[in-house]
Design goal:
Layout: E1 21-23, H1 55-63, E2 70-74, E3 79-81, H2 88-99, H3 104-111, E4 120-124, H4 130-136, E5 138-146, E6 157-164, E7 167-171, E8 181-185, E9 190-194, E10 200-204, E11 212-216, H5 220-234, E12 240-242, E13 263-265, E14 292-294, E15 315-317, E16 338-340, E17 361-363, E18 384-386, E19 408-410, E20 427-429, E21 437-440, E22 448-450, E23 458-462, E24 468-470, E25 478-482, E26 490-492, H6 503-506, E27 513-515, E28 536-538, E29 558-560, H7 573-576, E30 582-584, E31 608-610, E32 632-634, H8 645-649, E33 656-658, E34 679-681, E35 701-703, E36 711-713, E37 724-726, E38 734-736, E39 745-747, E40 763-770, E41 779-787, E42 792-799, H9 805-824, H10 828-842, H11 846-849, E43 851-862, E44 865-877, E45 881-886, E46 889-892, H12 902-910, E47 931-932, E48 945-950, E49 955-961, H13 963-968, H14 971-979, H15 984-997, E50 1004-1011, E51 1143-1146, E52 1149-1152, H16 1170-1182, E53 1189-1190, E54 1193-1194, E55 1199-1200, E56 1206-1207, H17 1250-1259
Parallel strand pairs: 12-13, 13-14, 14-15, 15-16, 16-17, 17-18, 18-19, 19-20, 20-22, 21-23, 22-24, 23-25, 24-26, 26-27, 27-28, 28-29, 29-30, 30-31, 31-32, 32-33, 33-34, 34-35, 35-37, 36-38, 37-39
Antiparallel strand pairs: 1-8, 2-3, 2-4, 5-6, 5-11, 6-7, 7-8, 9-10, 10-11, 40-50, 41-42, 42-43, 43-44, 43-47, 44-48, 45-46, 45-49, 49-50, 51-52, 53-54, 55-56
Helix pairs in contact: 2-3, 9-10, 14-15
GO cellular component, one term: cytoplasm
Enzyme class: hydrolase
GO molecular function, one term: metal ion binding
């Protein structure tokens, strides 16, 4: 059969088909090839101006091909063709303004950055995507053989082969697709490897008359590509094709060979309605067997009429297409059952919808309806109607009285008055409204009622058919259901104001789950436990002083009574509750436990027992042996002094134990009997001997921080599953280890270099991170005590929910971004906002599909007023938050942007996003401001909430926590818990332990920063004489004073226990390593003599920021020549013992200091030779595992992560870690100078003081000789920060 000469693209269905059906399209076009994409400079395409030319050149120009079409691609997904009137730079500017930038100059600067391409990118010509093109169509010319291999009549021939849709298409003419086409349906078929031939596959159709084609591919790569794609098609049970997110403007012509197609997904494309173009939506009627069609998010603007000509359609999704009208032709779809029109601009529906006699579900949410369409009265088959998110306060719903056929109504985010006009409804959703009262008694047929997140005070409902009641997060004081709901199985009334459990609840015989937590209930009725159907009872966070004493046999499997006022549990509770598997009685006042049995035999099946934060003593331990099946035991923060070895030996099935916060001196050696143990947590005790947990085969996590360990000997072969070993907070610990390769996170205190700083520390910190039940650490903490010239501090917590990548990127990068932003503006809040927005593009491809919450706290002096008090600036997105303790009371500094915020809900509606029933944007995240998730732009943006407060002596500490922490603890409880613990590390550990014992099952992180702000926390010593800071440079520090010392050694800030190093000597500043543990110093400042040249005499008082005016007191000012190195923070190389004259090192940034505070400078200052810099860099590269001396700390095995822990070498990569090898100029000045700096650049003097300093240097006497090894130089200095 030959091809006709016309260029009609539409295939004519002909021919013979017995498993394979040969079809002859008139002239099928070749497979589409995408033009080469060219990214425009600076993220935008730029047009080249036309030049005038003579007539001959003008004629030649007319014959030249037209310029390529411009395309825009957002967040790495689909690419859209720009219209003729669209301007690329304007689109880019609008996008960046939507992110949160406020100034035009900043938007223009950001648009020039090449990294903005991960957010928005422009192409000249349609960009090619390998993944999308493979899903659309595979094609090539290969050796093909039909039929059985052993028949000699079948020969190998070179043919064109195409895989498109659900069919394999083979041409009958060599190198052509214009002849007879053989079509092999693949649904239900199989693909097999042919071992006799290289790179050969056998494709077979299904059915008794199946056909087989053998295809030999030219390369192994093509072989794998075809095998992967065909296997997906052949494994399907239904004829389905997914072409979503492929940047399609028209349908591929070969797709129409799939005549048996029943399900087609075309969402998130740019399909156009143009009858003149082949493959447009006008040809959809060719799919005569199509049942399900998804055209959502195609920006159609108009409803495609061709869809109405598919009579077999049963499901049609037209959501988010900017539709303003639905045509009358939709009435021709008589078989349609589900019709989704959510997220459009609809105000009316055509009357012809009444012809859809089978329509049962109609989605009209987040449109602009002001009234119910009258046609709904005639759609008698409609049972579910979604009207959520329409015009609030204007929608008149009384018309539902005339629609008794509608059983399920979704009215979320919609109404603010009563709904007593829906007597026939069986499922009613009223979530996220402002209802203050609800009388649902008239709903006699009601089965499921959702009224969460309202302002309900009273709730009345009919219980005739009620099966599920959801009324959490209201203000309920009265709850009546009449008659008794005999079918009620689930009831959630948590987070209300109920004072007692209604009597009718005890009579609901089919009730299985009851959640009454977070109320004001004082007593539980005894009859409640007699319900034979009750399986789960959640009664935590109430005011109960006791539980019912006499309990009969109860079927409760899960009992949660945490956060009450219980003094004891009923004596018969554990004996009568034969089915009890889970018991949480944490945060009570328990002093003893009830027995599980009165004899040696026990029927207990208890598996999880949480008793944290009680008053339990050693007498309770013996009672635990009555639960031989116990797997999880939490007894942290009680009064335990010992855990008998004989009792531990009987808990053989134990897998997780937490004994933190007690007074234990040892962990029993019989823990070796617990062969399934994987987690041992016993921090904040008095343990002196390391337990023999390393012999357990399943051990994964060991936390023995904040104890009194003095020596630990690890075995030569560590357990294969060990992932975390935390030994911080043991100051006398001497570790003997052979290998740490198998440990994911190893934490140990860094050896102290001695206390050289006498000034009191204004802040100190401690932090911790804990993985969730899936053993994935999806949180990260950032702690930099000496940020930006040792005068500032930076802390952060990052939560990736269920991903690890985003928190790690935030931890490694945000400090660098903030440092750069501080050079661009003095406004601290603006710096924070821009830091978060810039971080959005820094996430790169990881932020396109993933996201994370973040909170960042920055402490510094106001650059406008360097002598003023310290200012704490907090910025957050998502549910990571900061709380400041002021005068013993919590002061929240963060805000969580969710759907309950009216301004955020209005913004979401304006962008036509869909809020699902669980309150999430498009079902992804409940936070409307969060980092990452760029595919949800502009509904989800990274602009943070920023708040600044001036620190005062009344401020004790502040807490940064992840979502898991604040979901488990209130701000009041967190502040009270930290106030009772003097050590910052132990306080952070306590917060995470409490959260896990209270029910947190996700990763959790907490940072506690203790404050000691003196009364005179402002500088008053000749600050007025200092020149103002230069633009673009960090504000001059006024808080460094150096004691007198020999003239040959510059008084650089040295290490102290009060200021542990937070900058790893091996990593770049982007990795900001910090020492785990408390960094506070309680030692008083040592006395130091005052020199003659001091601006303040011996008897003259100085401010707290400059104690004891020294003759060499100086004001630090950054040099423009900063460079990457492996120097330690105190100016020492890894092998040197003396600081380098004139050079200060802060992590990976080496800065030059000039003595301008007192108007004096030293002559004869020693400059670091270039060889020393090379040695420092070489040492860091050649000895990654060697110990490094840093400010108050030295490195440990491997590279330190940004949280102070040691990670394997492969985890220590960073985008700017290679700056020492390739020192490029960056806007922030990082790694700007070569590895060997010019000695002339090591002294920077302000122009106005240059002449004066020269004169002073000439008059300065020569420096005395260096002290010998027997006479160490006095390297001490006073650095309050």
């Amino acid at each position: 059969m030959k091809a006709s000469g016309s260029r009609n693209w539409r295939p004519r269905l002909r021919g013979r088909s017995s498993g394979a059906r040969p079809l002859s399209p008139a002239a099928s076009p070749p497979p589409p090839t995408a033009p080469r994409g060219v990214e425009a400079s600076g993220g935008a395409a730029r047009d080249r101006p036309a030049e005038e030319s003579p007539d001959g050149e003008a004629a030649a120009a007319e014959k030249a091909p037209p310029p390529p079409t411009l395309y825009v691609q957002l967040h790495g997904e689909t690419a859209r063709r720009l219209e003729a009137d669209e301007k690329p730079l304007q689109i880019q500017n609008d996008y960046l303004f939507q992110l949160g930038f406020g100034a035009l100059w900043r938007v223009q600067e950001e648009g020039l950055d090449s990294e903005v391409g991960c957010l928005i990118r422009f192409y000249a010509g349609k960009p090619h995507s390998t993944g999308s093109s493979e899903r659309i169509q595979l094609s090539g010319t290969y050796n093909v053989r039909k039929g059985k291999m052993h028949l000699p009549v079948n020969r190998w021939t070179r043919r064109q082969v195409i895989l498109c849709g659900t069919c394999l298409i083979v041409s009958s003419v060599k190198d052509s697709v214009a002849g007879k086409m053989h079509v092999l349906p693949l649904i239900g078929g199989k693909v097999e490897e042919v071992k006799k031939h290289q790179h050969c596959l056998a494709f077979s159709s299904s059915g008794p008359q199946s056909q087989t084609y053998y295809i030999c591919f030219d390369t192994f790569t093509e072989y794998l590509r075809w095998l992967r794609q065909v296997s997906k098609v052949a494994s399907q049970r239904i004829s389905s094709v997914d072409l979503s997110c492929c940047s399609l403007e028209h349908l591929p012509a070969n797709l129409f060979y799939s005549q048996d197609l029943t399900h087609l997904n075309l969402k998130q494309n740019f399909l156009r309605q143009n009858p003149k173009e082949p493959g447009g939506l006008e040809s959809m009627w060719l799919f005569t067997k199509l049942k399900s069609l998804n055209l959502s998010n195609n920006h159609l603007g108009d409803f495609p009429l061709a869809v109405c000509n598919i009579p077999t359609l049963a499901e049609l999704n037209m959501s988010c297409n900017a539709l303003r009208a639905v045509p009358a032709a939709v009435g021709a779809m008589h078989n349609l059952q589900t019709f989704l029109l959510d997220g459009n601009f609809l105000q009316t529906l055509p009357a012809e919808l009444e012809n859809m006699h089978q329509l049962s579900y109609l989605g009209l949410s987040f449109n602009e309806f002001t009234d119910l369409p009258e046609v709904l009265q005639k759609l008698t088959a409609v049972e579910k109607l979604c009207m959520s998110g329409n015009c609030v306060g204007t929608l008149r719903l009384q018309a539902l009285r005339k629609m008794p056929h509608i059983k399920h109504v979704d009215l979320r985010n919609l109404i603010a008055d009563g709904v007593d006009f829906l007597p026939h409804v069986t499922q009613l959703d009223l979530r996220d409204n402002k209802l203050e009262g609800l009388d649902a008694v008239v709903f006699t047929n009601l089965e499921v009622l959702h009224c969460e997140r309202n302002q309900l005070v009273t709730l009345n409902a009919c219980g005739c058919f009620l099966k599920a009641l959801y009324a959490s997060s209201n203000e309920l004081v009265q709850l009546d259901v009449c008659p008794v709901p005999n079918y009620l199985s689930y009831m959630d009334v948590s987070r209300n104001c109920l004072e007692n459990v209604p009597e009718w609840v005890c009579e609901s015989r089919k009730l299985e789950v009851l959640d009454i937590g977070h109320n004001q209930i004082c007593e539980l009725p005894a009859r409640l436990f007699c319900n034979s159907s009750l399986r789960k009872l959640l009664a935590g966070h109430n005011r109960m002083a006791r539980l019912p004493e006499s309990l009969e046999r109860t079927s409760v499997e899960v009992l949660d009574v945490q956060h009450n006022q219980l003094l004891e549990l009923p004596p018969s509770l554990l004996m009568k509750a034969d089915s009890l598997r889970f018991l949480n009685a944490s945060a009570n006042k328990l002093e003893t436990l009830p027995p599980a049995t009165l004899s040696e035999e026990t029927n207990s099946i208890l598996q999880e027992l949480y008793l944290t934060n009680n008053n339990l003593t050693d007498k309770c331990v013996s009672l635990l042996t009555g639960h031989p099946h116990l797997k999880v035991l939490h007894m942290a923060y009680n009064r335990l002094q010992s855990f008998p070895a004989s009792k531990m030996a009987k808990l053989e099935e134990l897998e997780e134990i937490d004994l933190s916060g007690n007074k234990l001196k040892a962990v029993p050696t019989t823990i070796m009997n617990c062969r399934r143990m994987h987690t041992v947590t016993a921090h904040s005790n008095c343990i002196e001997v390391f337990p023999e947990v390393m012999q357990l085969p399943e051990i994964k996590c060991v936390d023995l921080s904040c104890n009194e360990l003095s020596e630990v000997t690890l075995p030569e072969n560590l357990p294969p599953k060990l992932q975390e070993l935390d030994l911080t907070g043991n100051p006398r610990l001497a570790l003997d280890h052979r290998t740490l390769d198998n440990i994911r996170c190893f934490k140990i205190d860094q050896p102290s270099a001695g206390d050289a700083s006498g000034a009191p520390a204004v802040w100190s910190h401690g932090y911790t991170e804990a993985s969730g039940v899936k053993n994935k650490l999806c949180v990260a903490a950032l702690s930099v005590n000496n940020f930006c010239d040792n005068q500032e501090a930076l802390y952060g917590v990052f939560d990736g929910d269920r991903n690890v990548e985003v928190p790690y990127l935030l931890q490694c990068t945000m400090s660098d971004i903030l440092a750069e932003e501080l050079q661009k503006t003095r406004d601290g809040e603006e710096c924070m906002v821009n830091t978060f927005i810039v971080m959005q593009r820094k996430l790169g491809t990881a932020g396109q599909k993933l996201g994370g919450a973040a909170v960042l706290c920055h402490i510094r002096h106001d650059p406008v007023d360097p002598g003023g008090p310290f200012t704490l600036t907090s910025a957050n997105v998502g549910k990571c938050q900061t709380v400041l303790c002021r005068n013993g009371k919590p002061l929240p500094l963060s805000r969580s942007y969710v759907m309950s915020c009216e301004e955020e809900l209005r913004r979401i509606k304006r962008h036509k996003a869909i809020v699902t029933e669980d309150g999430k944007v498009n079902g992804v995240t409940e936070s409307t401001r969060i980092l990452g998730y760029t595919f949800l732009h502009p509904s989800v943006v990274p602009r943070p909430h920023v708040q600044s407060v001036a620190l005062s002596p009344q401020d004790e500490f502040f807490i940064l926590g992840s979502k898991g922490l604040w979901d488990s603890l209130s701000v009041e409880e967190a502040v009270d818990a930290v106030r009772s613990v003097p050590d910052a590390l132990a306080a952070a550990k306590k917060l995470c332990t409490l959260a896990q014992s209270y029910g947190c099952r996700e990763s959790v992180s907490a940072v506690v920063v203790q404050l000691s702000v003196p009364e005179d926390s402002f500088c008053c010593c000749e600050l007025a004489a200092l020149p103002p800071p230069s633009p673009g440079v960090f504000a001059p520090a006024a808080g460094v004073a150096v004691r007198e010392r020999p003239a040959d050694g510059l008084g650089a800030p040295s290490s102290s226990s009060g200021l542990a190093s937070e900058m790893s000597s091996e990593l770049s500043t982007s990795e900001m390593s910090s020492e785990v543990g408390s960094t506070a110093s309680d030692e008083p400042p040592p006395p130091g003599p005052l020199g003659e040249g001091s601006p303040a005499g011996p008897g003259e008082p100085r401010c707290a920021l400059h104690p004891g005016g020294a003759p060499s007191a100086f004001q630090r000012q950054l040099s423009s020549a900063t460079f990457s190195s492996a120097f330690s923070d105190n100016g020492l190389d890894s092998d040197d013992e003396e600081p380098i004259e004139g050079v200060f090192s802060n992590g990976s940034r080496v800065e030059v200091a000039a003595d301008i505070h007192c108007g004096r400078a030293r002559d004869g200052e020693r400059r670091r030779p270039p060889e020393a810099a090379d040695e420092g860099v070489g040492a860091a590269e050649d000895e990654p595992g060697a110990s490094r001396r840093v400010e108050g700390a030295a490195g440990t095995m491997g590279r330190r992560r940004g949280n102070g822990s040691v990670a394997p070498q492969e985890r220590s990569h960073n985008v700017i870690e290679v700056a020492a090898d390739a020192p490029l100029r960056r806007p922030g000045g990082y790694f700007a100078a070569p590895a060997q700096p010019d000695p002339d650049d090591q002294l920077i003097i302000p122009p106005e003081l240059e002449e004066e300093v020269k004169e002073m240097m000439k008059q300065r006497p020569p420096a005395p000789p260096r002290p010998g090894p027997a006479e160490p130089a006095d390297c001490s200095c006073d650095t309050p920060l």
